Amino acid sequence: MRLLLLLLLLASATACPLPDDARYLRPCASSADCDGYVCEADRCVPVAGFFDVLAEGEGEGEGEGEGEGEGEGEGEGEGEGEGEGEGEGEGEGEGEGEGEGEPDCVDDDDCGADDIFCNGLDRCAAGECVHEVVCTDAVAPFCDEVDRCVACLVDVDCLKPHDFCAGRDVCLTNHTCSTEAACPVGLSCENSQCTGCIANSDCDDGVFCNGVETCDGSGDCAVGAPPCDVDELCTGTACVQCLSAASCDDRNACTVDTCDAGSCTSTPRACDNGCNPATGACFACNDDSDCDDNNGCTTNRCTDNVCTAASACATFEVCSTDGPPRCVGCNVDDDCFGSQYCVDNSCVACREAADCPRHSFCDPQVCNEGVCALGLPHDCEPGFDCCNALATCVSDDEPRPDCGGVR
Fold it and tell me: Is position 388 within any domain?
């Protein structure tokens, strides 16, 4: 019916012929069926809103005389009078007619009601769909699909401005508001907080480092004992020895202190003879044996953990230059005093008889293991004397002053 009326209205209101196009007003389910046209009201039309433009646009009717006319638009209606209006009219007389379009609805079903009460009510009133909001009463402003308009749905719907100790506002299962005691039975309310206790859990302040609070039986909470030992640190969740290596310092420079997973570890420094706890330096020795340098010419001592070395040789001794170091009388003749000689690292008076200071031809000396000793006098034949200067025997009958005396 609507389509027929629009076609009639289009034909009478425009001097232009209808489009000569096979697509025009072809039945359709979507615009994809219209080959470039638009699917509207199950028909293919040139542009979107095509029917609305036809039904709601301005139109004029021409004629002579005055009278009443009927207007046709989208739907049927009547209008009379002079002036300008919406729609297109047909009739006799001068002026322009005013017409009414087809109503939006006939009954409530035309308004798309979803049967969900809390979504509101959609009604048909005077041909127009009207949406009515439900639960506007201040006493029951909330909507429940079963109980309809109620005072509350959740506790927060019942909140009223009052002191904490005046009670706790709650929403009951029947959707009515009620006020319950602010604190559990057995606890009192002071200064907007619950005080006292029934069980240990009522006293727990949630802070691990404060220890475990307990209810003392008289309704009062007792402070808990610190959970950590004196030499431990509390992290908030556990007791540990350390948080960093700095927490592990044992004031001993001879250890390397580290913190591993909350536990301190002190590792001694690698020192053969001990360590100085004040400086961390390794000791050179603990006793004299630690200072032995395998040198026979020195005497080694450990004094205050420090090695010292002194000469082990006597006043007239020197350190040998051949073989392992050791104290000897000499290495060369110059190490000996006077006219001594160095033989096998010892200073001696002679190496041979000629080295002896009193050795002579007539009174020879012998060198016995480096020591000069008197030998046997030179024996001359009878009638001859021994002459040192000439190193020979001379006749007694021939005095020889150049002999320096004879024997």
Answer: yes
Map tokens 């002194």 to a residue. Answer: 310
- Report whether 123 contacts 135 (CB < 8 A): no
375 and 394 housed in the same domain: yes
E strand or H helix at 54: helix 50-56
* Residue 374 placed within a domain: yes
360-382 CB burial, b ≥16 within 10 A, e <16 = eebebbebeebebeeeeebebee
- Indicate whether 398 and 366 sit together in one domain: yes
Report the alpha-carbon distance of residue 118 to residue 108 in Å, rounded: 17
The rounded mean pLDDT for the chain is 78
Find the domain containing 370 and state its range: 357-403
For residues 291 and 308, what is the distance between their CA atoms, to the nearest angstrom?
8
What pLDDT, on the 0 to 100 scale, is given for residue 219? 80
Pairing of the two strands 75-79 and 88-90:
unpaired
pLDDT at residue 12 greater than cutoff 90: no
* Interatomic CA distance for residues 171 and 176, integer angstroms: 6
Q: What is the DSSP letter of 17?
A: P
Domain count along the chain: 3
User: How does pLDDT run across 210-230, given as a tens digit for each residue?
Assistant: 999 998 877 888 888 999 998
Q: Is the pLDDT of residue 98 over 70?
A: no
Name the 3-class secondary structure at 291: helix
Do 393 and 364 have their domain in common?
Answer: yes
Let me know if residue 264 belongs to a domain: yes
Last residue of a domain, one of 259, 283, 307: 283
Question: What single-letter amino acid sits at 318?
Answer: V
Provide the CB-side half-sphere exposure for 179 (13 A, CA): 10
- Give residue 364's pLDDT band: very low, low, confident or very high (50, 70, 90): confident
Q: Is residue 245 part of a domain?
A: yes
**Closest-CA residue to 339 (of 329, 327, 347):** 347
